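**Entry details**
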Amino acid sequence: MGSETWQSGQGERESARQASWRDADRLMLMGLALHVLIALALGLHFGGLGLALGGSLVLAGGALAAHLLAGGTALSAHTMAVTAMGMVALQIQLARGMLEFHFGVFVTLAFLLTYRHWAPIVTGAAAIAVHHVLFDRLQAAGLGVYCLTEPGFSRVMVHAGYVVGQTVFEILIARQMYRRAAEQSALVGLVEHLTAHERINLDTGHITGAEGTAGLLRDAVDRIHGVVRQVQTAAKSIDGASAEIAAGNQDLSVRTEKMAASLQSTASSMDSLTVAVRQTADSANQAHALASGAAGSASRGAGVVQQVETTMQAIDASAGRIADITGLIDSIAFQTNILALNAAVEAARAGEEGRGFAVVASEVRALAQRSAEAARDIKRLIAQSTEQVQAGSGLVVSAATAMREIEGAAQQVAQLIGDIARSAAEQSEGIGRVNQAVGQLDQVTQQNAALVEQSAAAAESLRDQAQRLADEVSVFSTRAG
């Protein structure tokens, strides 16, 4: 597309140059018309109207035909230069070689600068030089033609020197004008290339021959081209990146909202857990108080059992002493029975006199027997009581051991419940801090969700800005790749 655009620009510049040369042709035709008027006036004045009319028609007709058939070309320009100098030669001929009309040569050379090219100037100078040399020699030969009022080759050479000097100077001017025209044409072509197809075509890679201002403009356009390509690339990258950021922020926003909902649920659960742990801590404190009371009661019960054990031991000792006393009574009863038996024997020996004593002895014996039986009953009961006391003492010892174990267990339970209460209090405090942290995290998550929404909106705005930037930069046409 760039090559086609440049070729199209080349064609347009060529057409512009032809149009410029056509304008120069028209100016030269206007000048020829002025020459025709001067020639007719000279013909009337010097009596050569026919020559003036015929020569003017031939020269002007040839110039007009060249313009109509090949206007704007080198052929037309050279034809204009020759015919213009021919009109000057015609005027010199009509004026009989008057020196004043030789100034037309310099005026015509100046007119030829309208082509802004050296070739028509050289052609015109060569044509008038040939005319001067040829007509001077023909005039010297007496053929009725005029170059000067009198033939003189040296004067012709002097005139030729002036013509050469002006021609050289005008060639330099024409070259400068041509260069300026070329720069202008290149500048116009470059501008037309930049603004072709309702876009700004920055691709100048196919443009060659741009010099001067056009070259500087092309260099500037090349730099702008590089910048615009970077901007276009950056706009596309920003568009893609902002689209990815917007999509990522949208996903992050959804996940953050879900996380916020989960944190709210977690915070609610942590509140419930905090209340439950606090209730557990309170219950553990109450259980610790009850366990401490139970441990005290078990300690007091152990003391009472120990007192009972002491009392049982005292009863056991008393029962032993009673058994001893009962054995003494049994021994006394046995001795009394023996004494009564001896008394009865003595009474039987005494006969009638000892009958009353025998009765007393018999009663004493009966009383001794009853005492012995009572002592034996008491001894049996005391033995049973001793056995029961010993069994009770064993039970009391077992009860005391059990109470001591209960007391130790109650103390351990109280210690464990105390530890549980302290742990529950610490857990309650820790859960409270966790609950506070969860609350802060929930707040931060809510803030993050708001920031994510703002970031998503900013990314979407950035994407819109990048799209607008890409749309704005798309007016510049750059090289592919």
About this structure: Helices lie at 2-46, 49-70, 74-94, 103-111, 118-140, 153-194, 212-350, 355-473. The domain at 230-473 is CATH 1.10.287.950 (Helix Hairpins).
